[in-house]
């Protein structure tokens, strides 16, 4: 901007209005700063199309051409920096825009944990994770011993909404049933899957049919 202003150049004299000039006037807080340069900017840099029709009739056109190499060098530095730091910029921008909702969710989670502790309860999601931590370390976990002794046949319904974690929790029962000549059936319809937001994996149904 200092280079352009020192030569008294009207921004409208740049091709693309404001084209290459538009990059220099973006502020650090501009949410579009991480966007790709438009076609006018690329044409200016790569093809030397610096001047608007207005500039071709004014002395400012020559002034732009006089500093075009300097402007190109500055643009290349911006381009290199953008490739190096662009991902961080996008990350920090998204964090800033979501900071308040994240803080609210954090406060809600603290309140929820306090209520669960006071009432001595856990959520179903936590229950699945607790089972998983036991299942992964034992072939037939003790929590299944009584169930495995009493039942030999299992039907798992709504399988299209079963998560990988839940399926891994059920596998010891299924394997134990098969080892004792039991039977197992899964029932599910991929078109009725509605719990992907709870990590339901409809692909498991498709794999089972194959």
Commentary on this structure:
- The chain has 210 residues and is mainly alpha-helical.
- It folds into two domains: 2-89, no CATH class; 124-209, Rossmann fold (3-Layer(aba) Sandwich).
- The chain is 58% helix and 4% strand.
- It is built from nine helices and two strands.
- The chain has a two-stranded parallel sheet.
- Strand 1 (153-156), helix 8 (164-179) and strand 2 form a beta-alpha-beta unit.
- Helix 6 packs across helix 8 (164-179).
- The termini are far apart.
Describe this protein with a few key phrases:
Rossmann fold; mainly alpha; single chain; two-stranded parallel sheet
Write the layout of secondary structure elements.
Elements: H1 2-6, H2 20-24, H3 39-47, H4 60-66, H5 68-119, H6 124-135, H7 142-150, E1 153-156, H8 164-179, E2 183-186, H9 203-209
Parallel strand pairs: 1-2
Outline:
The chain is mainly α and 210 residues long.
Low-confidence runs (pLDDT<50, min 5 residues)?
none
Question: Could you state the oligomeric state of the chains shown?
Answer: single chain
Which value, in Å, is the CA radius of gyration? 31 Å
Count of strand segments = 2
- How many domains would you count in the coordinates? 2
The major sheet is characterized as: 2 strands, parallel
* Overall pLDDT: 82
User: Largest beta sheet: what is the strand line-up?
Assistant: 1-2
């Amino acid at each position: 901007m200092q280079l352009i202003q020192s030569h008294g150049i009207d921004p409208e004299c740049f091709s693309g209005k404001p084209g290459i000039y538009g990059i220099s006037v973006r502020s650090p807080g501009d949410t579009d700063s991480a966007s790709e340069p438009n076609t006018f900017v690329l044409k200016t840099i790569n093809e030397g199309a610096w001047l608007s029709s207005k500039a071709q009739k004014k002395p400012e056109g020559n002034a732009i051409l006089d500093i075009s190499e300097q402007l190109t060098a500055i643009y290349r530095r911006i381009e290199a920096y953008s490739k190096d730091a662009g991902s961080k910029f996008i990350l920090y921008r998204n964090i800033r825009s979501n900071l308040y909702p994240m803080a609210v969710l954090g406060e809600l989670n603290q309140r929820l944990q306090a209520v669960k502790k006071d009432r001595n309860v856990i959520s179903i999601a936590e229950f699945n994770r607790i089972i998983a931590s036991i299942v992964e370390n034992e072939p037939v976990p003790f929590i299944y011993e009584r169930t495995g002794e009493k039942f030999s046949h299992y039907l798992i319904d709504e399988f299209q909404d079963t998560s990988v974690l839940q399926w891994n929790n059920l596998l010891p029962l299924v394997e134990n049933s098969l080892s004792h000549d039991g039977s197992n059936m899964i029932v599910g319809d991929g078109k009725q899957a509605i719990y992907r937001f709870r990590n339901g994996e409809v692909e498991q149904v498709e794999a089972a049919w194959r």
